[in-house]
UniProtKB/TrEMBL annotation:
GO terms for cellular component: mitochondrial small ribosomal subunit. Belongs to the bacterial ribosomal protein bS18 family. One of its GO terms (biological process) is mitochondrial translation. One of its GO terms (molecular function) is small ribosomal subunit rRNA binding. It comes from Lineolata rhizophorae. InterPro entries: Ribosomal_bS18, Ribosomal_bS18_sf. It comes from the Eukaryota. This is Small ribosomal subunit protein bS18m. Gene3D superfamilies: Ribosomal protein S18 (4.10.640.10). Signal peptide: none annotated. The lineage of its organism: Eukaryota, Fungi, Dikarya, Ascomycota, Pezizomycotina. Keywords: Ribonucleoprotein, Ribosomal protein.
């Protein structure tokens, strides 16, 4: 919070004396107030320009940094290094809505669809967590059960992604 400053009019009144004032004293106070406003107005312009420049610099620096530091965070110089920035860059996009609710599909009924199921497992065969999939807890449990069922039946490999999915991903990369 900024400290309160006395009003320029009050300062002018205090300088001229307290109590009843003559018309000339009031005019003098108003004239000095106008000068103060003009001086203050110029300094406010400069202040606004300085703040805008500082804001542009801050935004430019924030765009260069991948990781967002919050007020009060403690960090070491290595946190600003290239390796740490690469780690922060690898943060994945998390969906805001449950995809199964949006499409009105039951995850258990999709155990035969290897393409859908493989989107929710890692390349090592682990089922991705809710923080990565963006699913509701109920649908996450149903999806995990469907993936295990698909792996148990033998429709989906346990260790890696399905070869057809890998081929599709490679074709997409080559197109880009």
């Amino acid at each position: 919070m900024r400290p309160l400053r006395p009003s320029p009019i009050l300062n002018a009144v205090r300088r001229t004396g307290s109590g009843a004032q003559s018309v000339s004293n009031t005019a003098a106070a108003t004239a000095s107030f106008g000068k103060l406003l003009q001086e203050k107005h110029l300094s406010e312009r400069e202040l606004v320009a300085q703040r805008a420049a500082a804001r542009r610099d801050r935004i430019e620096m924030e765009q260069q940094l991948r990781r967002r530091f919050n007020h009060g965070d403690v960090y070491a110089p290595r946190d600003l290094g290239v390796a740490e920035q690469r780690k922060a860059k690898m943060v994945k996009f998390r969906p805001k809505q449950d995809i199964f609710d949006v499409l009105q599909v039951d995850p258990m009924s999709q155990y035969r669809n290897v393409a859908i199921m493989s989107e929710f497992i890692t390349s090592t065969g682990r089922i991705k967590g809710r923080n990565e999939t963006g699913l509701r807890p109920v649908n996450q449990r149903k999806l995990a059960r469907a993936i295990r069922r698909s792996m148990g039946i033998g429709l989906m490999p346990r260790i890696h992604k399905h070869p057809e999915i890998i081929a599709q991903q490679l074709q997409r990369r080559l197109r880009m």
